[in-house]
Every structure is written in structure tokens, then in C-alpha cells.
Sequence to fold (263 residues):
Amino acid sequence: MKIFFCILFVTLISSLPINQTCAGKSLQDVSYVVSIHFQKFDNQYDHQCLGAIIQEQIILTAAHCFYSCQNPKKFRLIINKNKKMNSSYYQEVATIVLHENFYPLQGNDIALVKLAVPMVLDGKFLKKLNYNHSESIEENVQGYAIGRNRSNVLKPNGSSNKSLEAMDNVYFKLIPLRIIDYNRCRQRKFVHLTRNELCTLAYETSGPCDGDSGGPLVNEYLNVQWGLLSYSRSMCKPHRIYVFTRLQPFVEWINKTMGEMLT
Fold:
């Protein structure tokens, strides 16, 4: 389990290229994805995890992204509503809540992040992802993980290590995955797998990479979230297994916790 530094912030990037499509959808349709960064000891920022907007003020991600640090004062959100950098602005993080029963490789790898100020979701450049659904997720059903192709490093004062235009090149990729039966996955030595997790196989392309943790697993239409990336034995490789926290068992926890956070 990777140990995370304690100084982090969250970057929301909603300007995505539209030249990649899937099931009739463009990557503009994943404008609910957020990128979580941390500040190293040299004050440089590196991408760490992904997450998804599920409400104007709430981001859903993996608990292990904050396992070593849960101080909201160490986080902030940068919103880029379109490809023009002068539209970007910061938001502070108010609260971070990890599932009370989370422990690395023992399930319950889920967390919620509350922003100090709600985002304005326009349904195009910024929108929320549906996590509360009744879709059947059976063996061999295909879904898509959303991975990150490139990250940009930002300094605390908001200036970039790269040119401002480099932000236009930040985009995500769709990773086709197939659901694997729980017992088959356990037989492949994923002995920590719980019933509250989804086992998937990267069968066409390389799988999710280091830094994609917390990112959503969505249906073929990219509009329903089935899970969020928790762990794997080997990252960025094809024909490997990737484990996601299954969201259906946690809908009640999400709703209850989100309600308490917004009160």
C-alpha cells in the first residue's frame, strides 16, 4: 500500500478532447472526473488519485487516497470550466470522510470530499455522475474505467510548472474492462476480495495505471457509476485483474454521510 504525503489539493479538469468516442459518447461526457494532487516536500505537486462529482459540493473517491492525511486544510479544488485558463479558480475543501470500517486490502475503500463552496454544474463542462442505480452487473458485462493520460503539476500559488496552454492537453482515456465472477477472481489469488468489490479484467488494452485509484468504473453509456478503483497487483498492463469498490452496497452510506456533511 502506497504511503501518501499529507499536503494535497484537488484539481478538477473538465476541458476534454472530443476526438475519442465510445458507445456514441465523447470524452466530453466524462466531465464529472476530478484529479487529486499532493504537494511534495519540494513544494511541487504530483497527481495522486481520481474521483467523481456526485453532487454540487461532494466528490466520491477511494479512502486509501487519504489514508495518511485527512486534514481538509491541506486540500483545495481548482475548477477549469472550459479550455481557457482564465476561467480557472480555486475552491477550498471543507471536510473529508473515510468509511469508518476502511483498512487497506480489507474492503470499504470509499470516501467523500466536501467542498467549502458548491460548484456550478452546467451539465456539459461540469456535471455529476449517477451512483445510485439498479443496473445488473454480471460476469462478462463490459464497463469502462476512466484513466488519466497526462497530469499537470501546479504550484501552491496557482502558477504552473508548464505553460498555461498545457492544461488544454490534459485529458482522460476510456479503458474497457469485463466483470469477472467473484469465485474465479478469488481462484486467481485475489484472496482479499470481498463481496463489496468488483473484479474486472483488462482484456483489450492496458489496464488502469498508478494514479487512477479512486477513478470511476462506469457503464457503456458513461453515465452510471458501478464502482471506484481500489487496487491491483500490477498496473498499466493488459490481461490483468483490477479491483473496484462496488457502489451498490454503499449507497445508503453515501446518502447518509453526504446528508450529514451538507447539514
The chain has a mean pLDDT of 80. The domain at 141-153+166-247 is CATH 2.40.10.10 (Thrombin, subunit H).
